[in-house]
Amino acid sequence: MSSIDSTDSLKSADRLKEGWYALYPPANKAAIASVDPKPVTMSLDNRGLAYGDGFFTTMAVRDGQVLWADYHWQRLASHAVALQLDIATPHLVSSLKAYAQQLQQGVMKVIVTRATQSLRGYGFAAGAAGNACEIWLKLTPSERQSTTYQSAFHKTAGSYDTLLLPNGDRTIQQAPSCAVCLTSQIAVLPPTLAGLKSLNRLDNVLASGELEQIKTRSPDTGIGEGLLRDMSGQWVEGVMSNVFYQLSASHTTSSGQQEDVNKDRNYLTDGQWYTPPMTQSGVAGVMRQVLIDSLADTDKPVIMRSLTDNDLPKLSQMFFCNAVRGVMPVSSLTLLSGQVVEFG
To answer: pLDDT, tens digit, for every residue of 158-169?
Structure first.
């Protein structure tokens, strides 16, 4: 679990209530350090609302700490550079630590949008005026989530609801669920936007709608997530998560060497894991990077490898992951043909 120091520990009576808060620009000079929970208003000229001009990150908070905090801070900094936004990262990070201390348990969602511009339409001004931003924070307290997460971390490493990473960190592991290949597709993006968690998520919205329809038609199948292709036909990610997979047959690795991946292995530390690259579509998630980094110094680091239609029947293991839900193992995957691939 990620570690972050905080100096703003508050009593439980001072914890913030669920809702939206305007981080920047603040309502007053003290608003960032001591929030007055009044209704937040947003202009209809907001660039995020009008054009999706911005990005977001969603963070789990446990015991006043942001899980995988350094990864979220890196996302804030890298996305701001990519979208030419000035978010004053150190000051924002300090504020978010204070909010996490007040929240104690739950989820924080940060949305960063470009500030309203004097130019009409898509354009934004050169220099500081064009790089200025608005920052919004949603707090969702959850004592129930905290209980689930903390109980998981107090069990042994072999427990069904925890996962011990090779670097010694732990993350929550959900119970296995079924997955289904969706007909919805996500956009192929230019290199400057591929992998970013931008506010342009309409393709994921429609995919989520398709997944919910499938769940409604088959309520007893235990479907937890849907696998998505991009417009080039590569399978890239889940509706709300990234995907990792293993293959049951011999195949060529990215280095051109033949490798046999057998099925008799431990879940995470044995066998070769692959994850699709985020070079033309998808979101490079925080939990995805945590897992890539944790396996980097093992004898089988994660390999970036495209996932194709021909690979799907050969899958031997598969899981989805995100920063709030942790690792979500897949027990079976239903292909577009109706074929079901079972995982041991």
So the answer is: 334 778 899 889
